[in-house]
Specification:
This protein is mainly alpha-helical and 314 residues long. Helices cover 81% and strands 0% of the residues. Helix 5 runs parallel beside helix 11. It starts with a helix and ends with a helix.
Length: 314
């Protein structure tokens, strides 16, 4: 009964602030519970968007049963509230990590797509040049080994990114993608949910992150719809009532927040991330890089040409 009353209160508040997705979520959760005819009538009115009658009926129902609500230990209430705040904080940082990873990954895909062939040509030429030089002078053996290693490493990296796709979204679509992902991750992030359905949530969360990384708005929207209309997950702050378990969960989540903050700091110090914050126009950046790489390629080809010409004369 207590859960039914709480979810009705959430529905009432969500109607007032016009958050229809939360209303739908709570309705779906109520349908999984044992409810009486009056609550069924309220849900029927909601399904028909007859909100004018819904709020008075909810108030009437809550007042009728408020005296039956069991008193909860104030410490438990405090712990549940603390855990709820930590869950929101963790989600905020978690979403930020995914956003930063995607920004860096998206740039790397574009970088290799636009410049990868040219860079590989340069590395092949550089390796060839130092191979010639090393045959003539052992002092160039180090440069030859390094150029060979650089080529191998880049080739593997280039091959990895060649299988990835980069989609350019409009500002509006980027904003919508972030909004959808944020709502969906809040509903299925395994680190803030009840333990009983954690594995199921992990599978959905992996699917969500993959769609987010691929900038697949339709897929992210579909997953959100699935979470809102299907069987929902309950957060730990909503499902736990044991002091020891709550304290343990709070301790675990605090540690995770600490680690994720370190990860965010590391991402902000990432060379690619720093560079991206300095670039005003990504198109101009790639044009400039292509010009610089072409000049480097021409320079190495000239060195090889001079080397071969010299030894031909010798």
């Amino acid at each position: 009964m207590k859960e039914v009353l709480k979810r009705l209160e959430i529905i009432k508040s969500s109607i007032i602030i016009e958050d229809n997705e939360i209303v739908d979520l709570q309705v779906n959760k109520l349908l999984l519970l044992k409810i009486d005819n009056k609550v069924e009538s309220i849900l029927y009115l909601i399904s028909n968007t007859n909100f004018e009658k819904v709020i008075p009926l909810i108030d009437e129902y809550l007042n009728q049963f408020r005296s039956l609500v069991l008193y909860e230990d104030e410490k438990i209430q405090g712990l549940k509230h603390e855990l709820s705040i930590l869950e929101k904080e963790f989600l905020l940082y978690s979403n930020k990590v995914e956003e930063y990873h995607n920004i860096i990954n998206d740039f790397n895909i574009k970088y290799h797509k636009k410049l990868g062939d040219l860079i590989e040509e340069i590395l092949v030429l550089r390796e060839e040049y130092y191979e010639y030089m090393a045959k003539e002078n052992d002092d160039f053996n180090v440069e030859y080994k390094e150029s060979k290693q650089d080529h191998e490493e880049f080739h593997n990296e280039f091959k990895q990114f060649s299988y990835s796709n980069s989609i350019d979204l409009s500002k509006e679509d980027k904003k919508e993608l972030k909004r959808l992902y944020k709502k969906a991750s809040r509903l299925c992030h395994p680190d803030i949910l009840e333990e009983e359905k954690k594995e199921e949530a992990e599978e959905i969360f992996k699917e969500l992150n993959a769609a987010y990384e691929q900038k697949d708005i339709k897929k992210v929207s579909s997953i959100l719809h699935q979470l809102l209309s299907g069987e929902s997950f309950i957060s730990a702050s909503d499902s736990l009532f044991d002091k020891k378990v709550l304290k343990r969960k709070i301790s675990i989540l605090r540690e995770k927040i600490k680690k994720i903050k370190i990860e965010i700091s590391a991402l902000k110090e990432n060379e690619t991330f720093i560079m991206l914050n300095k670039i005003d126009d990504i198109y101009d950046y790639f044009v400039q890089m292509q010009e610089e790489l072409m000049a480097e390629k021409d320079s190495i080809m000239e060195k090889i040409k001079n080397f071969l010409k010299k030894h031909k004369n010798d």
